Amino acid sequence: MNHFVGLFVDPATGMVGLCKEGGLSFMYPVPSTDSLTYEHLGVCLQGDVSLHDSENLLEAARLTRDQLDSEVLESVLSSEDPVAVATEVAEAIANTQSKENMSYRETLESLLLPIGDVHKLLALLVAELDPSYEDEMIETADVQDSETQLAMSQLFASPVSERLLADIVGRRCLARLMVTTDLLLLISLLQHQGKVQNVNRVLYKLSTLLQNYHTLHWLCCQSVVPTSPLSLENNMRQLAALNISSCSRQPPINSGYIPMSYVPFFAREM
After folding, report:
1. Which of 85, 115, 141, 242: disulfide with 79, CB 3.0–4.6 Å?
2. Number of other residues whose CB lies within 10 A of the CB of residue 36
3. CB of 264 within 8 A of CB of 192?
4. Could you report the per-residue pLDDT of 139-170, keeping only the tens digit for each?
5. Prediction pTM value
């Protein structure tokens, strides 16, 4: 599958492009690259997540929500910094050695591991919840990523291309935290959706929102670096030859966090 791996913004032409493994999949004109909204990107963003995978993701979110006590759950839903509270949630679950929690981790594994590359990053949640997971594994992966990032960035001349590559291959050491953040987002969406008549429609919408989340994350937290159309086209040809797959949903490297106030905004789109 030709997965979404990033976003290009070209202020010179007022165009926004979605980047997939095979190259630039779509260029879309917007009124202003300084104030992009969900509506501007709606034509570009298309869900490629199966309903079966969506059901598994939502079930994982429900299980996670049920594991949290009321105080932690309230903190999740009210916090303006989901990245910070994600650490607390992950630690609370990982430090509970009950039979119920062991069963919960096994169930999560059965739900998340069969999902393909689109949500491969989410499978790392199992490692996050496993107390035997060693931090040395992260450090080793981070070194390898740094070497890969350096080699790949040498192919590119413009700052926007180097940053996109860093977004894709960098910061593996933060992957476990970001995985938990994704589940927290799903939990919050479930809380906001209320009673649903058409379950399949909502599952599809939530899976699409999960895909759109990292793009909106990038838009909210990154400054735009101008690049000429010629440079953009040249960079995309080089990117298309890299055959990127396992990091297709890697969160942005300098993304900060997305405020939880965006969750009701997502929910209104259903």
Report:
1. 85
2. 19
3. yes
4. 333 334 444 444 333 333 333 433 433 333 33
5. 0.28
